[in-house]
């Protein structure tokens, strides 16, 4: 019993020795409530964009499009998503993307993100073997 009590006191005293960062330190990895919620909301919208564009079946090249999503700190999209107009609700995709870009801009500002300011060019899309893909249209 005495050994158990001594061990418990020792363990409790060690937990009090954890280092706590000074309040003046700016830790990007330390999430506050609003920032954590912002990151969660951003991730959920990103997953929604992926779900909206997952069916890439097509019959001809003009049914394949790309949309710039996200926001780089210096402007422009983070990436481009390929989608088929046959199976994608373009209004919902546009609305979801607008919300996603807005949240990505807020996230970049809150985290003090920086980038190379290199603009991404939209890739060419084509219907190859009844599936939208990145590349040149078949002649």
TrEMBL record:
<keyword id="KW-0175">Coiled coil</keyword>
<keyword id="KW-0732">Signal</keyword>
<protein>
    <recommendedName>
        <fullName>Lipoprotein</fullName>
    </recommendedName>
</protein>
<feature type="coiled-coil region">
    <location>
        <begin position="35"/>
        <end position="62"/>
    </location>
</feature>
<feature type="signal peptide">
    <location>
        <begin position="1"/>
        <end position="18"/>
    </location>
</feature>
């Amino acid at each position: 019993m005495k050994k158990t009590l001594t061990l418990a006191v020792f363990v409790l005293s060690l937990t009090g020795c954890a280092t706590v960062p000074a309040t003046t330190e700016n830790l990007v990895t330390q999430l506050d409530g609003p920032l954590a919620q912002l990151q969660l909301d951003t991730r959920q919208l990103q997953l929604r964009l992926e779900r909206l564009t997952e069916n890439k079946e097509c019959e001809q090249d003009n049914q394949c499009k790309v949309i710039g999503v996200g926001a780089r700190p210096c402007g422009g999209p983070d990436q481009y998503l390929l989608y088929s107009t046959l199976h994608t609700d373009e209004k919902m995709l546009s609305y979801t993307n607008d919300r996603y870009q807005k949240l990505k801009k807020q996230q970049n500002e809150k985290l003090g993100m920086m980038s190379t300011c290199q603009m991404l060019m939209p890739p060419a899309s084509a219907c190859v073997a009844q599936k939208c893909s990145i590349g040149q249209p078949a002649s």
